[in-house]
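#onboarding

Welcome to the new folks! Below is a worked example of what a typical request in this channel looks like: someone posts a single protein sequence, and someone else replies with the predicted structure as tokens. Don't worry about understanding the tokens yet, we'll cover that in week two.

Example request:
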Amino acid sequence: MLGSWLKTFFPGRRSIPDKAAEPDFDPQTLPWIDRPEADLEGYLRGLSKAEQDMFGPALRSWRDLGYAIFPQAVSHELIDAYLADIEELYAQRRWRALVLGESFGVQPVQALSRETLEGEHHLRLMDFHNHSVAGKKLALNAKAVTFLRHVFQDEVVAMQSLTFIHGSEQWTHQDFPYVVAQIPSHLAASWIALEDVHPDAGPLGYFPGSHRLPKFNFGNGLFLTPESPLREDAFREHLERHCAARGIERQVFLPRKGDMFVWHAALAHGGTKVNNPNLTRKSFVTHYSSLRAYPRDRRAPEVIPRRWTWNGAHLYENPLLPEEENSFRRGEAVE
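Example response:
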């Protein structure tokens, strides 16, 4: 279910680090905050008072629970610019931005009718930030990348983005078996609400503290490959069983437009059931890594990438569609 579409994003992820068969991340490459000896309070004392107030609670939540919540992290004006870009994309359908749907697989927007695009409830718009300046600014918003710079102690790179119109209803999973950088533990994600989310629209569900669960072995290591003896159903059962054994109950994120949820590579999460299919759940997801762990774009790892930089963080321009980069420029006038 999940792996089939994530393999589309990361066709080069078969090149897995040598430590892949071990039952956990390499302790020598863990982000500092994940290490048992991490002195978070000492680290916070080294920050300015403003940084302590802004990021202290978030870093404590990250360490203890595996996530951080930032209310009103991005402006409604920037969100509206991005949604207007999507509306233009759907209306004109002359670009090769990719979408994935359960009924048609991966297709460029130009190959699909508007009725198909709007009727596919589990559709994902893939890496539309490459086409949209507003999408780039959403991915590299100041709250997300400044926070993750504290986590990674390195420059931050946005690896990819997903845009959802409806709830995903994804099974419980962790991200690291699918989205793999050169240092697998250098991974995080953000989820930005592009509208107020209704409880019946299939909001994001997550398990606080599940980032510390024992890692699942697919039978050939930590990462799901075509050769893995165990699949996503066993992965889901492992996560939910271990959460139940530790008394970790699923929580639901019910954000307002502009709120952002940022989570750890190993936080168990998924899309809850859509009780009302007439409701949308517009959201923007970005996966991140450190510059050290993700120095090349997955789509052309042999090519030195062209970087787009904002708020001191980076994303790579699409090496396969350079002529369509920044086709939608509404976001240029918006912070």
